[in-house]
């Protein structure tokens, strides 16, 4: 469809923020992701060690804050106003928030690395300020909604969990200096990780998927009942799991079952949406999303197993928990984000560069900006690297872990090539257009 506008075309351009509002978040996040993957092969010794140590925490926060949270924030500025048919409250506030977030994440990662607790606490404080600005902007944006559909409910809940995660992270950073949490470090870390991973990120992914997967596959969410049940089960399960993890209660398995039921309903709903799609071919964006959903099913089973405590010994339990975390960060969240980015970024760049030229000059289709062969190579390298890295962590194999992280590094470089190819369309000197034909 060269020369035609991509997407459904249902959103009015006036509702969309400037291209540079989400793009600065996306580019920063992608630099953080590629840096983390290139960094990993040099950290095999630390990855084989216990996960609660400075270098591993630095790598983890580069992924969770620099890559995942930066991406979700940028995507929220672009998609929440469009999906909920409203307008972003303040682009200027989003720009201020970006710089505060960037400095905060840089301070946290660098001071985790050198083991300086005061620097980590200052960085966490700046991240909390950035999160507060984000919540104000999103809150004022959503305040004008005429009605709250299933997407809006998920976004609102995710924002609450983001605030809770950031506040808890600050308390943990201050505890390293003032020791007021009672020395229960591991149970606090587990609760903090689940609050962020399930409450903030997974809640946002579920809500966005009900809108975006249907839009990308030319399908519809015909019945919201299963999505509404999923929403309440996920919230109930997460709150219960958070409390029981803090208390080290055996009731954690019950709440893990509620979360598993919510995941099952989400996957069943996505299956119904994809079965009704009018676009038979799955592009690389949707293939990433489907692969991530498969990983989510495996991850849920692994989480249920860990919640029972039925593992041979404490050492294996710690390695299994670390592998569970790596699989969640890379196999579920990162693969989902890449799939969404392969649909969103080409559209944004295409709209900025070519939409006004349609009918005046030959312009490429938005789908051509991504390319085929490099995206395919990235897909297989990333999945092979994730499988080997998780296996290396769980079975404490230095050789498998070294090979896995090297493959991940190659996947990161390939991903960088894919996104640079898309961004090159912003530079007319790199991507000149043929002159308009005159009759």
| Overall pLDDT level | 91
Number of DSSP E strands = 0
Q: Which shape, going by the Cα principal axes?
A: globular
**Which range does the strand content fall in?**
under 5%
Uncertain residue ranges: 1-14
Specify the biggest β-sheet. Answer: none
Ends distance: 23 Å
Query: H/E order of the elements?
Result: HHHHHHHHHHHHH
How many helix segments?
13
Structural class: mainly alpha
Output the radius of gyration. Answer: 22 Å
Helix proportion: over 70%
Q: How is the secondary structure organized here?
A:
Layout: H1 20-39, H2 44-48, H3 54-83, H4 91-114, H5 117-143, H6 150-178, H7 185-216, H8 225-247, H9 252-275, H10 284-308, H11 314-354, H12 373-394, H13 398-423
Helix pairs in contact: 1-3, 1-4, 1-13, 3-4, 3-5, 3-7, 3-11, 4-5, 5-6, 6-7, 6-8, 7-8, 7-9, 7-11, 8-9, 9-10, 10-11, 11-12, 12-13
Task: Please provide a written account of the structure.
With 439 residues, this protein is mainly α. The protein contains 13 helices and no strands. The protein has helices at residues 20-39, 44-48, 54-83, 91-114, 117-143, 150-178, 185-216, 225-247, 252-275, 284-308, 314-354, 373-394, 398-423. Helix 3 packs antiparallel against helix 4, helix 3 (54-83) runs parallel beside helix 7 and helix 7 (185-216) runs antiparallel to helix 8 (225-247). The protein starts with 19 loop residues before the first helix and ends in a 16-residue tail after the last helix. The relative contact order is 0.11. Residues 1-14 have low confidence and may be disordered.
């Amino acid at each position: 469809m060269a020369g035609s506008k991509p997407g459904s075309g249902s959103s009015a351009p006036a509702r969309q923020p400037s291209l540079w509002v989400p793009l600065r978040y996306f580019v920063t996040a992608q630099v953080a992701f590629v840096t983390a993957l290139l960094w990993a092969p040099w950290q095999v010794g630390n990855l084989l060690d216990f996960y609660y140590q400075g270098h591993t925490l630095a790598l983890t926060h580069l992924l969770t804050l620099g890559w995942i949270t930066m991406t979700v924030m940028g995507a929220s500025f672009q998609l929440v106003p469009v999906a909920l048919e409203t307008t972003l409250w303040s682009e200027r506030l989003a720009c201020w928030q970006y710089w505060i977030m960037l400095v905060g994440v840089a301070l946290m990662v660098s001071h985790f690395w050198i083991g300086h607790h005061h620097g980590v606490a200052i960085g966490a404080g700046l991240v909390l300020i950035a999160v507060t600005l984000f919540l104000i902007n999103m809150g004022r944006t959503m305040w004008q909604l005429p009605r709250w559909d299933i997407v809006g409910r998920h976004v609102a809940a995710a924002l609450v969990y983001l605030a809770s995660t950031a506040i808890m992270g600050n308390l943990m950073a201050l505890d390293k200096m003032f020791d007021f949490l009672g020395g229960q470090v591991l149970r606090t870390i587990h609760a903090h990780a689940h609050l962020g991973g399930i409450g903030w990120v997974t809640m946002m992914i579920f809500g966005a998927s009900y809108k975006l997967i249907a839009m990308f596959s030319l399908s519809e969410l015909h019945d919201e009942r299963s999505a509404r049940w999923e929403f309440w089960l996920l919230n109930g399960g997460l709150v219960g799991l958070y409390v029981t993890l803090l208390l080290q209660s055996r009731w954690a398995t019950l709440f893990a079952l509620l979360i598993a039921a919510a995941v099952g309903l989400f996957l069943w709903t996505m299956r119904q949406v994809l079965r009704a799609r009018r676009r038979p071919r799955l592009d690389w964006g949707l293939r990433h999303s489907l692969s991530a959903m498969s990983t989510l099913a495996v991850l849920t089973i692994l989480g249920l197993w860990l919640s029972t405590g039925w593992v041979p010994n404490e050492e294996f339990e710690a390695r299994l928990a670390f592998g569970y975390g790596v699989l969640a960060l890379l196999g579920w969240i990162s693969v989902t984000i890449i799939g969404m980015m392969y649909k969103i970024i080409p559209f944004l760049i295409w709209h900025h560069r070519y939409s006004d030229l349609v009918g005046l000059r030959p312009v490429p289709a938005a789908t051509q900006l991504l390319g085929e062969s490099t995206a395919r190579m990235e897909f297989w390298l990333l999945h092979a690297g994730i499988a080997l890295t998780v296996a290396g962590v769980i079975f404490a194999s230095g050789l498998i872990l070294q090979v896995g992280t090297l493959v991940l590094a190659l996947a990161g470089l390939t991903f960088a090539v894919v996104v640079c190819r898309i961004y090159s369309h912003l530079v007319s000197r790199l991507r000149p257009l043929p002159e308009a034909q005159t009759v």
